[in-house]
Design a protein that fits this description.
56% of the residues lie in helices and 20% in strands. It is of the alpha+beta class. It is elongated and about 110 Å long.
């Protein structure tokens, strides 16, 4: 990278390896890299083979759902709510009976 940064303006660095050519240049403080390759059927085959391999791997993958873990508070919360509701209903019924009993006694007097 340091060698590329020291390129004079307008200069282009080009290298070729086999059937692939890479060209790098600086334009307006930006590094532009272009890679070209000759039509290589093996490369296309490898890409298609890779896609088939990935598709096969994804189809073989199984999703395993882990059971949801509940904390102690989550488990007790619903039970305690039910107990509190029952206690409130009992208090309301006793208060109503007491009020109704007092109302009858007042009429008799």
């Amino acid at each position: 990278m340091d060698g590329l940064r020291n390129l004079p303006k307008g200069a282009v660095y080009t290298t070729k390896s086999g059937k692939t050519r890479v060209t790098a240049s600086f334009k307006e403080d930006s590094l532009h890299v272009m890679a070209e390759t000759e039509n290589v059927p093996e490369l296309n085959y490898t890409e298609e083979e890779s896609q088939v391999h990935i598709r096969d791997q994804l189809s073989k993958q199984e999703t395993v759902k882990e059971p949801v873990t509940h904390s102690l508070w989550d488990r007790l919360k619903h039970g305690l709510t039910g107990i509190i509701i029952i206690i409130i209903v009992i208090i309301i019924i006793k208060t109503y009976k007491k009020w109704h009993y007092q109302k009858k006694n007042v009429r008799l007097d």
